[in-house]
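can u do me a favor
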């Protein structure tokens, strides 16, 4: 079996490292919360491809016997016959290294990372709501002179966005939630 044929068979399966359309870093954007899965060794590609064949060939054999026969068949292959499986394993190892880099970038506190992006998404949704018009800007205390008597700590969505934009001073989603809860009439 050639490398291209093997790659075509494997590509019919669900991707080992998930892809999300329009997303260049699934860890940063919150689609993936677990670290990347370790790459599969070349023997596992061979095993997954031929296990069903061996099970049909030896219908009364136990699972242990089938796995033993698979191991013997793998060891009987020449280096040239094993090469497509090894190349596929190397491809997956390279993709694993790329996934690790993406995860590391997503966890750097100096860059825009997942919680901040989620807070922006919540804020954008709040601002688009038809009832949010009165909360988009600070309350004019000249027009509503008793506002500060009723509200202890005034807050509006523009101020929340400005605080969120200063990433170096950002303290976490809990502070963002506290600020959003302060946005009210009275």
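np, heres the sequence
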């Amino acid at each position: 079996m050639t490398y291209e044929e093997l790659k075509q068979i494997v590509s019919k399966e669900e991707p080992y490292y998930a892809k999300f359309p329009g997303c260049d870093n699934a860890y940063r954007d919150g689609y993936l919360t677990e670290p990347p899965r370790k790459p599969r060794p070349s023997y596992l590609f061979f095993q997954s491809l031929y296990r069903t064949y061996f099970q049909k060939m030896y219908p009364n054999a136990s699972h242990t016997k089938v796995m033993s026969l698979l191991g013997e068949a793998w060891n009987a292959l020449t280096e040239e016959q094993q090469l497509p499986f090894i190349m596929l394993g190397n491809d997956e190892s390279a993709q694993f290294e790329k996934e690790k880099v993406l995860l590391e970038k997503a966890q750097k506190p100096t860059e825009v990372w997942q919680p901040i992006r989620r807070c922006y998404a919540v804020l954008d949704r709040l601002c688009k709501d038809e009832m949010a018009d009165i909360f988009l800007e600070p309350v004019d205390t000249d027009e509503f002179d008793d506002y500060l008597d009723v509200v202890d700590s005034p807050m509006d969505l523009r101020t929340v966005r400005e605080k969120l934009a200063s990433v170096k001073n950002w303290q976490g989603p809990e502070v963002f939630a506290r600020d959003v809860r302060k946005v009210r009439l009275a």
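The two ends are 73 Å apart (CA to CA). hope that helps!!
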